[in-house]
Specification:
Pfam families: ADH_N, ADH_zinc_N. With 307 residues, the chain is of the alpha/beta class. Helices cover 27% and strands 26% of the residues. The chain is globular and about 60 Å long. It binds NADP nicotinamide-adenine-dinucleotide phosphate.
């Protein structure tokens, strides 16, 4: 089968096509024929070496397609059958066939297409783990006042349509995000910060957080957050969390429960999906997708059409 991955870490030039045998599912594993694969920042972290993994490696973290083989044990417990539409949160999804532990596979409800599942799964579950934490990420849906930060007017319009209460364009050199947050909160700061930008915004987070607030740092779009001393938290009694989807939604029970909640929000039209672009299943396609996601010009999900 064809797959897209790396045999060494580095810039976009290290992406390569791999020719691999179709995997045979072992005990508790499901084999799916991939139709769509989601593109995520984590793919770029794995390619660059920020997240070190054994090499060679097939990239991609989420796929949606149809079940084509079931291993023994848990995979053959009768809950899945050949031909079922499923999605999986698992490494190696830029491939024609993907093998995943049963615990990482969810059966799609009636009416949910594989394209939509690949669009929604990873970001949807990430949003959920945020909203399940005390400060809530799917925040506007839950009634919180949300201050969003964006770099373009177009992103501001989209964020507003998605429910943000206030928006700050941090590309405008005349605007201080921290001052603007202070003004909007009458000097109190915000109860929670969800920061996927990382290095560039980390220090300002401590200016904007309220006393006893929570900073959730969940990404490295601008680079990894540097090491810091716990004493940094004392000035405002701040809590810092660094959640990651891979071991937050970990067991089969967690995967099925959170995916069911996500699919229900989609079915009730409480979440809408936005695809930025479909990319070809080729080295060029994945390279363009990685360039685009890191280039700050995308608004919505990037997906690879595998079949
Ligand atoms: N912890 C987890 O399990 C988990 C799961 C999923 C995603 N994530 C993380 O969440 C973050 C956002 O992911 P996403 O899927 O929501 O991607 P996204 O929609 O592309 O959001 C990333 C945004 O970061 C902003 N940004 C600011 N400085 C940047 C820089 N120097 N380089 C690139 N982007 C920069 C960009 O917005 P502006 O151009 O408007 O500034 C960009 O649109 C990523 O860091 C990702 O790794 C973490």
């Amino acid at each position: 089968m064809r797959a897209i991955g790396i045999s060494r870490t580095g810039d976009l030039s290290v992406l390569e096509q791999r020719s691999l045998p179709v995997p045979v599912p072992q005990a508790d594993e499901v084999l799916l024929k991939c139709e769509w694969a989601g593109v995520n920042f984590i793919d770029t972290y794995q390619r660059s070496g920020l997240y070190a993994l054994p090499l060679p490696l097939t990239l991609g973290q989420e796929s949606a397609g149809r079940v084509v083989a079931l291993g023994e044990g848990e995979a053959s417990d009768g809950t899945l059958k050949l031909g079922d539409k499923v999605a999986a949160y698992v490494g190696g999804s830029f491939a024609e066939y993907v093998v995943a532990p049963r615990s990482k596979v969810v059966k799609l409800p009636e009416g949910l297409e594989t394209r939509d599942a690949a669009t929604a799964l990873l970001q949807g579950l990430t949003g959920e783990f945020g909203y399940l934490c005390p400060p809530r990420r799917m925040a506007s849906y839950l009634g919180a006042t949300v201050i969003g930060t964006v770099s373009t007017a177009a992103k501001a319009s989209l964020a507003q349509a998605a429910g943000a209460t206030h928006l700050i364009n941090y590309a405008d050199a005349s605007v201080s995000v921290a001052d603007e947050v202070a003004r909007l909160t009458h000097g109190a700061g915000v109860a929670a910060i969800f920061d996927g930008v990382g290095k560039d915004t980390w220090e300002d987070d401590f200016k904007m957080i309220a006393r006893k607030g929570t900073i959730v740092t969940f990404g490295n779009a601008s680079g990894a957050v540097p090491a810091f001393a716990p004493l940094k938290l004392a000035a405002k009694n701040v809590k810092v969390c660094r959640p990651t989807l891979g071991n937050y939604v970990y067991t089969r029970e967690e995967t099925e429960r959170y995916a069911a909640e996500l699919f229900a929000l989609l079915a009730q039209h409480k979440l809408t999906l936005r695809v930025h672009q479909e990319y070809a299943f080729s080295v060029e396609g994945v390279r363009q997708a990685q360039e685009d996601i890191a280039g700050r010009g995308t608004t919505g999900k990037l997906i690879v059409k595998v079949a």
